[in-house]
Amino acid sequence: MAAEGPLTGRLALVSGASRGLGRATAVELAAAGAYVVCTARSTRTGATQTDVDDLTLEGTLDAVRAAGGDGEWHRCDHTEPDQVEALLRGVLDRHGRVDVLVNNAWGGHDHHEEADGEEVWDEPMEQFRAMLLGGAYSDYVTTLLTLRLAMGPARSGLVLTTTWHTPEPPAWVPYESSKAAKNRLVYALGYHLQDKGIGVVAVAPGWMRTELMEAHVAPEVLAGKTESPHLAGRVMAALAADPEVMRWTGQVVDVGELADHYEIDDLDGTRPHGNAGRYRPSPVPPPLPGEGG
Q: If 6 and its partner were Cys, which of 69, 220, 241, 286 is the partner (CB 3.0–4.6 Å)?
């Protein structure tokens, strides 16, 4: 039996759900009662990351069920409109609704190339294109098709996008620019959907202890500077359950700010802002190659 909670009876679709923030979000939404449709490109017969065991959709669904929730998984490349439309039509045929969309797909680091030199103009041209496709474009495709087929006709729903607050001064040019495109898309969609009862919110976590980060970064580097991806997942579950979620629409909101607002702690009881023993994640580097979020 699925978990009972504030999202019972709701269906959430989470892209990029095979690992990291996507997996944690699927688990937290399911723990709050939602039926979760998990999508990504990585399966046990074709994993895109092998540095850590079972970073796959099947592994995510196992974690969802271990948390007392339920759902299903489907392999989908969210840069391909035909695949996304087929996915959504199948979900609607089986369940009749999509209440929450979490845009977490991110493929740009799969094409990571080191610059040949140290100057900004030495950056490979392909890098920015790959990040735009894996980030803002996949968000655009998935959101518009979800609006067209499900949320628009229902005049209800919530679109959540995982992103990054680009720093000042800016760092890695293709990464910062592609994240800025994601953020502006949220602002533009929020503006155009504000009178239709559909919220669009970007959620910006800090430096997360994902599976790949813990496998590649020394524990002493992570200590005191990081949060688990479950903190952002819990925040997104709270947003999905909030009847006044439209207060955040069109905005990029820091996970720490939302955790304070909803009084949510991380798995270890910490929170990015607030009382003694809590931390503020800084500085934050770009994700590891192949990492989502």
A: 241
The edge-to-edge listing of strands for the beta sheet with 70-75 is 70-75, 35-40, 11-14, 100-103, 157-162, 198-204, 252-254
Q: Is 110 buried (19+), middle (13-18) or exposed (0-12) by CB count in 10 A?
A: middle
1-51 pLDDT tens trace:
567 899 999 999 999 999 889 999 999 999 999 999 999 987 787 767 666
Q: Does 283 sit behind a cis peptide bond, omega within 30 degrees of 0 on the bond before it? A: yes
> What pTM was estimated for this model as a whole?
0.89
Q: What's the total number of domains in the chain?
A: 1
What is the pLDDT of the chain when averaged over all its residues?
86
Give the C-alpha separation, 135 to 49, whole Å: 18
**290: which strand partners?**
none
Does residue 275 lie within any of the structural domains?
A: no
Q: Give the CATH number, domain containing residue 135.
A: 3.40.50.720
